[in-house]
Amino acid sequence: MATDARPTIRDIAREAGVSTAAVSFALNNRPGISDATREKILRLARELGWTPSIAARALSSQRSRAVGLVIGRPSRSVAAERFFFHFMTGIERKLSEERYSFVFHASATMDDELDTYRSWWAERRVDAVIVVDLLQDDPRPEFLRSLGIPAVFAGDDPGYGAALLSDEEALMETVVAYAREIGVDSIGYVAGPRTIVHSRRRLAAFETLTASAGVRGIGTAAAEYSRVAGHEAVRELATAGMPRLIVFDNEVLCLGGSRELARQGVAMPDEVALLSLEDSQLCEVMAPAVTAVRRDPAEFGERCAALITDLLRKRIEDGARTIFDPAPEIIERASTAL
């Protein structure tokens, strides 16, 4: 039978000729032993290749050394979006560096999401959570506060925990400036659901920027991030007079919208140009290939994970606010070749 050859505190104590308590004092930097004994124990620990057991430390501190993320969408919707795949990759990579585990759950309803937080906390499965897609009148910040769960909010600031803020206004400035560069005089924008705070911020910025640029702007909000919602949004835009350029909040909405345009017999990009605020391989294989804004969701995830571990280790205080503002890059493809 295979055995675990990893050295233990007992092994170090035997080699050093001291008690296991003395080894524990040395490895945990606690008083109670001489400097010479401490140095001897630490040297032997290095020589033996000893590393701390995360499970043991979690048990002794009543911590799980895990961070949770709940995304409030059906799992099939999460799987279709490049943003969340790379966002979670970034979270996991940074947490791994900090010796934390990552726990994920996709939730179709708010009640299920709140129940997940409650059970995670009661079962000590997580030490903190990362929260995405802050909503208008969102119950999650107060719920997490009532349970005492440390939290980082990605994108917006609800007034609890720490927050990594996204610069939605700068994103829309880039898009409207690009539209003017390619010579369009009307822009339609299909935002995400109005219940999501960052969707409302983008819509407000879009309306302000198109008005100040003297460009006709037609904004609408999709009911959800799906192909069907993309179809419906394009039909709504058409009733107001089809714009020369349609900007979609993500590539899934763009796919549905492009199919609706094709169904209506609208030539792309000769009659209507397309742009997605999220880039992925889907944008490359669509016909025509879709121009997209490229940002790095993995870096956003890493920054959220760094913020949550800093919060847990008391490197920052509750209430810390940081802005994530990498310059958006527009990747031009055939859909805006006017």
From TrEMBL:
It comes from Bowdeniella nasicola. It comes from the Bacteria. Residues 7-61 form the HTH lacI-type domain. GO terms for molecular function: DNA-binding transcription factor activity; transcription cis-regulatory region binding. This is HTH lacI-type domain-containing protein. The keyword Transcription applies. InterPro entries: HTH_LacI, LacI/GalR-like_sensor, Lambda_DNA-bd_dom_sf, Peripla_BP_I. The keyword Transcription regulation applies. Keywords: DNA-binding, Transcription, Transcription regulation.
